[in-house]
Design goal:
690 residues, mainly beta
Length: 690
């Protein structure tokens, strides 16, 4: 066995940094309570709370014992030897990745005294490392819920407003989370009943956590029990406040198959929670809510004419306290989250164990911003996210004979493979990934006429009225069926312009200058503080991150020294993009005629009558510039049935996504000129091999 173990060491010694939630151990010495002398060869047995034997060992000739490995958790320890009363110590807490130091004093047996039962009390100071372990019993009694909230109870750890943990002043990115040995990159929330222990390491990080800059939060979930157990929990604040916090939980577990000795061979744990919050961010300062009838009237008629008749005001800027009231919860905002975790443990042989586990988290939130909660909560975005991970862990121990003279004892190795993926998507729930509906207000038909200026043509030498471009005369507007509240600003403005001629717009720029929405723009904010009714709230974004890891380690004792060697392979793939979806129309409008924005003055067209007599008018075609062309221009023109390299002037905002759905989507799929969409798009594959 020694030869095989050293062969394994040689294959692993090249890698010394690995991250894996490791078992703990129980280490100490057995004494005679009366004489103080050591008791050699005493038996030490570890049992779970159901009374099933988990592991055990014997003391050496000096009364010393070291039982390793033991999965972290709470156990009953029994110490016995011939002629002595059995000592039973309950509620012994075994910490992960550490030796629990414990000496036992046993007493000679009498007819009246056959066994002694004690309750373990953990020492106030842990001498092994700068960490704090919170077990299931303490977690259940806490007012806080969630991995982050539990970690924040530890000295040196602080939870910020977003729920992130900062350890000893380090940034939140410096805190690394592990759940059952799986490095977590997404949500760290777990059903509370599933947590067996949570360890927060604030300093003196073990070698296997070599890439952590701040601290470690390592959570171990409960394993199967030798007896069936289960619990149901329901928590609600609905009868008592307006926040409507509701949580339902279900946890079950136990053995699926036992051997002839009533020892569990296959066991399982399944724990789930569903949480609903009507107001995800309760605050001591009340929110503001408008009278519903008043807000509906603002949305339908957002403008009012300036007494001078020269401009318009936003009616929202004349809102008074009479239309407002204080509330504890905002409208059209909520947070839903479903959490599920489970594992199956299989004792494949007397010395080997296989654990299969995973977790899944899904959330569906209505995202609300403080600046939009008064006038513009009806356009809150949808935020969807999911996180899942799965792992398989194999562990084998090598039994040490009592009379063995081998230097190596308590040897075991662990191999774990895990995969995780998290997904995030933020959308306007009305439109999903139909990007061109986000910024659409309606159709804008630009009325133009040719404009001429008297001068001399340098190419032909003729003087006359030279064509200088199309002059704007006016705009005809037809409100679209999307973003109707935003479109009401524009429609009401055109309605007022029929009565007040000074408001009549000639160009799109005039509308934008008067804060009237066009395709791709929205209304200005109320006094620069609050989002106006119908305002654009955000962008479309999508993120998908995945991670694959393989970790392995071996542990063995040489006399009183415990040695660990391991390695880790980690591969990450990060993909995300953000699209300013409502701004697509603005970019298209600015780029629609870029390749043919200049006149072809080198080729004048002289206007002559039927007899060939020059009529003092010179026309020019628009000039196509290949250097200024893009895939966008060509794709749109082709979809409209025009020559992709043509020189006709087009008006992109005279269309909508229903009339010509093809040319917009073809433009996006076309691909090479994504800059026209105001897109921030990046795909960053990161591969770390450690």
């Amino acid at each position: 066995m020694v030869k095989k173990l050293f062969t394994l060491l040689l294959s692993l010694v090249v890698c010394s940094t690995f991250a894996q939630t490791r078992p703990g151990s129980l280490k100490g010495q057995v004494f005679d309570s009366k004489t103080g002398e050591t008791v050699p060869l005493a038996n030490v047995v570890i049992k779970d709370n159901g009374g099933a034997i988990v592991t055990g060992g014997s003391a050496d000739f000096d009364g010393k014992f070291n039982i390793n490995p033991i999965t972290s958790g709470t156990y009953t320890v029994e110490v016995s030897f011939a002629g002595y009363a059995k000592l039973i110590l309950r509620d012994v807490k075994i910490q992960p990745d550490a030796a629990t130091l414990m000496d036992f004093k046993i007493t000679e047996a009498t007819e009246e005294l056959e066994e002694i039962v004690l309750i373990y009390k953990a020492p106030l100071i842990d001498k092994t490392k700068a960490s704090h372990v919170t077990d299931a019993e303490d977690i259940v009694n806490m007012a806080a819920r969630g991995t982050g909230a539990i970690a924040a109870q530890v000295a040196g750890a602080v939870q910020d407003a977003n729920g992130n943990i900062q350890i000893r002043g380090a940034r939140p990115e410096g805190t690394v989370y592990f759940i059952d040995g799986v490095k977590v990159r997404g949500s760290v929330n777990l059903p509370q009943a599933a947590i067996q222990q949570q360890e927060v390491i604030t300093g003196g990080l073990p070698a296997q956590y070599g890439d952590a800059l701040g601290g470690i939060v390592s959570t171990t979930t409960r394993g199967p029990s030798s007896k069936f157990f289960g619990n149901v929990e329901y928590v609600t604040s609905s009868p008592f406040d307006d926040y409507h916090f509701n949580l339902a939980a279900l946890t079950v577990g136990g053995p699926l198959w036992k051997n002839d000795k009533d020892q569990p061979i296959v066991g399982f744990l399944l724990s789930s929670e569903f949480q609903y919050r009507k107001e995800p961010r309760p605050t001591s300062v009340p929110y503001i809510e408008l009278d519903e009838a008043y807000l509906s009237d603002l949305e339908a008629n957002p403008l009012q004419i300036n007494p001078s008749g020269q401009s318009v005001f936003y009616r929202s800027e004349f809102t008074t306290e009479d239309q407002m009231s204080d509330v504890n919860a905002r409208k059209n905002t909520f947070a839903n989250e479903f959490r599920l975790t489970g594992n199956i443990q299989i004792k494949t042989t007397e010395t080997t164990n296989l654990t299969l586990g995973g977790r899944f988290i899904y959330s569906d939130d209505k995202a609300s911003s403080y600046s939009n909660h008064i006038f513009n909560y009806n356009t809150n975005l949808d935020a969807l996210s999911s996180d899942w991970s799965a792992f398989a862990r194999f562990q084998q121990t090598f039994a040490s004979e009592k009379d063995s003279k081998s230097l190596i004892r308590n040897a075991y190795y662990t191999v774990q493979v895990d995969y995780s993926r998290n997904f995030r998507e933020t959308t306007d729930g009305r439109y999903g990934n139909d990007y061109f509906k986000y910024g659409h207000v309606g159709k804008f038909d630009l009325i133009t006429a040719p404009a001429y200026v008297y001068g001399q043509d340098s190419t032909s030498g003729f003087a006359g009225f030279r064509f200088v471009g199309n002059a704007p005369l006016g705009i005809e507007f037809e409100q679209g069926q999307y973003n109707t509240v935003r479109g009401n600003y524009t429609q009401q403005y055109f309605d007022l312009a029929q009565e007040y001629q000074s408001l009549t717009p000639r160009t799109i720029e005039q509308l934008i200058g008067n804060s009237i929405p066009v395709n791709g723009t929205g209304p200005r904010s109320v006094y620069g503080l609050w989002g106006s009714p119908g305002a654009i709230q955000g962008n479309y974004s999508k993120t998908q991150n995945s991670q694959f890891r393989v970790t392995a380690s071996t542990n063995f004792d040489i006399k009183d020294h415990s040695l660990i060697v391991g390695f880790e392979y980690e591969q990450r793939s990060d993909r995300s993009y953000t699209l300013a979806a409502s701004g697509l129309w603005t970019q298209m409008r600015l780029l629609q005629n870029v390749p043919n924005s200049q006149l072809d003055v080198a080729n004048p067209i002289l206007v002559r009558d039927a007899n060939g007599v020059y009529q003092d008018t010179i026309n020019y075609n628009y000039l196509y510039s290949a250097d200024d062309a893009s895939r966008f221009n060509e794709s749109v023109r082709a979809a409209m049935g025009l020559n992709p390299k043509g020189t006709e002037q087009i008006n992109i905002i005279a269309h909508n996504t229903l009339r010509i759905p093809g040319h917009f989507h073809v433009t996006v799929v076309g691909g090479t000129a994504l800059a026209f969409m105001a897109v921030t798009y990046y795909v960053i594959p990161l591969i770390f091999q450690k």
